Amino acid sequence: MTLLRHTTDEIKPRKALTVNAAKTCQPVGAMYAALGIHRCLPHSHGSQGCCSYHRSALTRHYKEPVMAATSSFTEGASVFGGQANLLKSIETIFQVYDPDVIAVHTTCLSETIGDDIPQIVSKADDKGFIPEGKIVIHCNTPSYVGSHVTGFSNMVEGMVKYMSTKTDAESSRFNVIPGWVEPSDMRELKRLMNVLSLDTILFPDTSDVMDCPLDGTREFYPAGGTPLEDLKASGDAKATFALGAFGSKAAAETLQKKCEVPAELLDLPIGLRATDRFIDKVRTVAGIEVPDELTRERGRMVDLMSDMQQYFEGKRVALVGDPDQLIALSEFCADLDMRPVYIVSGTPGKVFEQTVLERLEERIPEVKIANGANADMFLLHQWIKQESVDLLIGNTYCKYISRDENIPLVRHGFPILDRVGHSQFPTVGYMGGIRLMEKMLDAILSTQDEECDEEKMELVM
Ligand code: SF4
Questions:
Q1: Distance separating alpha carbons of residues 387 and 316, to the nearest angstrom
Q2: pLDDT tens, 439-455?
Q3: Does ligand 1 have an atom closer than 6 angstroms to the CB of 31?
């Protein structure tokens, strides 16, 4: 807290320094994606310290124990390479933990050494370490590039590379690649597809994995996750709806190339317009009618937007987090007549700024956008110091800026370490939009109640 008091409003050019990064490391995302495969054990090819960090980052956010294995590099592996460690790991994991899938991701150290994972996995297969019907997949996640979002994307693409298979079988199923969203969002996406009466393969799917019920039993592999058979069958699907350019595009395009499944790239369905685009695209591609149930849900969201517009109007908002989330969220804020003025993401990618500007449609000419390694919480704080905002939307780390600058905070994104609810209640779809509005209104109106003059205190709002 005290440290943030030294943040100045004077912005000096920085090239090699990140202060309070607005991202975390690639393997965290790869591990989260892997947990969305049924009976999968994520495997971190590196040191124990990396694996512990990735597991604890996910456990603290999801409030669930995260199981993962590690190649346990020591000095020897660091010098001579990690082949022997990974071979032994694959043999032991299948013998002791019996997963259907081992999902290997690399780390900074194994990438620097240059370990060739496909060659090692092939050797493990030759040695008979991979039982019949089981599979080892992998992705490269050096953390000196990218972020947790690119790690997630790489692992989802790895699922397609290793598992999606095209056969001659006729399929009526549709793939949905949800991007990095909460288990609650994945459940909501499945519900929406179910309301549309479509048979869906959602991958990865962390619902019933990272939000398990407490029922007195303990399963090493929870009930949820996309089964291996469904991942194979994704190669025969009629189409893929990929939600988010940063989290899902690579996998959808690879699937299109590998198995000729047409890819439809959409924003995350957060907010009214992005959800409309999602539902409309699904309707068009599948050739179906939208049922009344969904139209009524939409109507309830529009009603609330209209009722509460007077409180949203003109409110300046700062958003920080993951690019796919921010693209949709900033559009939603502008649609509520708010002013999303600062938008910061630690994930690199040239299309980010351009996409945000397209979605904002010149409605917010004063918007400042930054992403990549130097787009950090420090920069966001400096912008806020220059001209403050009425609302901050971002992860738990924003609480320091929120307190220091007395700005209400809506916790959204990853990680949320000090609250619950994010993994239980969706923010995608119309119902998710209603929840987001409730959270934003609650923050804005509570601050108004606390700070307004006594004679302006309203009972009915
Ligand atoms: S940044 Fe690299 S060394 Fe650090 S935890 Fe992540 S993978 Fe391991």
A1: 10
A2: 999 999 999 999 999 99
A3: no
